[in-house]
Amino acid sequence: MPQPDGSDTVRASGASRQRRPGQVSGLPREASAIDAGAWDSGRSKRPEPWYADGLRFACVRGCTRCCRGFPGDVFVNDEEIAAIAAFLGLPDPEFRDAFLRPAGSGRLSLRDRGDYECVMLEAGGCSIYPVRPRQCRTFPFWPEIIASADAWERQAKTCPGINYGMLYTRKQIEALAGIY
């Protein structure tokens, strides 16, 4: 029921509460204004990400910093395992025994050499570069790296290719990061 101040009274299950203009579903005005503004013709709008204008990246030949020096997992799936094994000319079981290790949750990872260097890293770079795992192909566009400008800049301190080279569009970044 409209009130003199522009608000109205909402009755539900015999109870009544006052709703102010711009307020949605009894939420506080500030929250409902944000929620109401997020809808346009029934379609939700995401806020623009900090990288909306794109990000620059070019892998620097011979760098290999992302392949060594810190602990971690390079996850591989069955399709990637088959491609790498074929590229190396090894039967799948032999490749698995020589180059993979369990990584928890039923996943497999490439081994490292004990000094946190990827087992596929050679003096000239990645020995399986044409068939490297998706995780390697999508670096540095991982969700945790593109989560904020600060995270991106922290990674740039260890990766000379960040902020240089090709400009990736928002659409390309989100496809690589698995954000749709």
Overview of the structural elements:
There is one protein chain. The protein is of the alpha+beta class. The chain folds into two domains: 8-39, no CATH class; 55-177, no CATH class. The protein is built from seven helices and eleven strands. It has helices at 29-37, 78-88, 92-99, 134-137, 143-146, 149-156, 170-177, and strands spanning 8-12, 15-19, 39-40, 43-44, 55-57, 75-76, 100-102, 108-110, 121-122, 125-126, 166-168. It has a three-stranded antiparallel beta sheet. Strand 7 and strand 8 (108-110) form a beta hairpin. Helix 2 packs across helix 3. The longest helix is centred in the middle third of the chain and has 11 residues, at 78-88. The relative contact order is 0.15. Residues 1-40 have low confidence and may be disordered.
